[in-house]
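queue> holo job accepted (S-adenosylmethionine)
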Amino acid sequence: MKNKPLQPKTPPAKRPAVMKRPASAGSTASAEASIAKVTPARRAAFEILTLVGEGKGHSDELLHSPRIEALSAEDRNLTTTLVMGVLRWQIALDARIRTLLQRPEQRLAEPVSLALRLGAFQLLHLDRIPAHAALSESVELCRAAGQPHATGMVNAVLRKLAAAQKPGQRVFESVAAFSERLGHPQWLVERWVAAYGREAALKICEADQKEPAEGALFTENGGDLPQMDDGSRLVAELAATAVPDAKTVWDCCAAPGGKTLILAHRLVSAEITASDVSAKRLAQTEARFRRYAYAERIRCVVADATATSGSQSFDLILCDVPCSGTGTLAANPEIRHRLKAEEFPRQASRQKAILKAALKRLAPGGKLVYSTCSLEPEECERVVAGVIAGTNIVPSPVEALLQELSGAGMLRQDANLSSAVRNGALRTLPGVHSCDGFYAAVLEAAK
Ligand SMILES: C[S@@+](CC[C@H](N)C(=O)[O-])C[C@H]1O[C@@H](n2cnc3c(N)ncnc32)[C@H](O)[C@@H]1O
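queue> job finished
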């Protein structure tokens, strides 16, 4: 290969499959010849998807590695489209491919599955890619990855797919059918149906398959405001509106700092402490803050928010806890492939520990905003209910805060957030609201 292999932030223990060469793979010369026939974008996409599949990197990080930055703008765009598209549609692509295999139950080697998914995604979802390019380069990728015996099958499956009719109009679909069609694990969608209803679950799945929505909630965007999802910004705007005269503010899970920046932008006379348990993430956050003049008032501290040490109390605390991220699948498509239901209780116990410790630092009459980008009740309302039971902390409804933001002209008239309040807390849903799925509850300490 002419290009250097990709460098994920954590170097892989093994090289990507495209360069692994089992003894049975035929001559090195024929693999070299095959890879030379593959365009840089498809080659890069194949390597990134291999690393993501092996758990050796996050798609977003890998798509910003020096090797990808060195590609032409056109190749970078195609690489991104291929990686994000395959990750979003993987479940649906695999289901379609299975129907075209001679033995649908057969387990394919990972590089073969990957070559098939890449080809199928281009054939089914990209209008401007000639079918022969999608097909022949998938075959060459398969050969170059040391799977020459599978090239005939890859060719045959993709030919059948290219010739097949597009699916007809759907009258009614079961949850199982639309989960698969829209590339989601059925168990996850069933949870959303239980929590939010079938129509909302369908809209969430549809939204997850598109590029993340452009800002559609706020009237003011860009300028000296940080770039971030509108749902994430909405959480921070609500926090700033909840305690507009806050003098002391603590963002206890701050990295990468988007919400801290909104707090600093709005609360012009507040001293703001931003902490995170990860020194590396906080260092990147500090570097980000340097680009904004109003962020000079932010003090960054590496700290574990579950630690009970520290005596300072705060008028406003933002507790934007780590979570499963199921409200952000459009931007983070691979989460769906890694996630297991057992993860929710594990997340919840960490979230409860953070919230419990943070509440101890709240000044009398102060407010804490607990938030996640998860759609799962275990990580959201159930954490809050579990932690505040039997304490003198009370929930403070968010409706009035949304009205205040709207009355101040900050929200667009078509923002349609009236349905984004459940039991007094903010609950945005992708596809239902024009942003990622966020949960935020405002909690108030007795005076
Ligand atoms: C959801 S992210 C925060 C996003 C951030 N508020 C923003 O809007 O840009 C959660 C952060 O919590 C940090 N974290 C995880 N466990 C923590 C703990 N025990 N104490 C402090 N920070 C923690 C993670 O490193 C991660 O950066």
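queue> Residues 1-25 have pLDDT under 50 and may be disordered.
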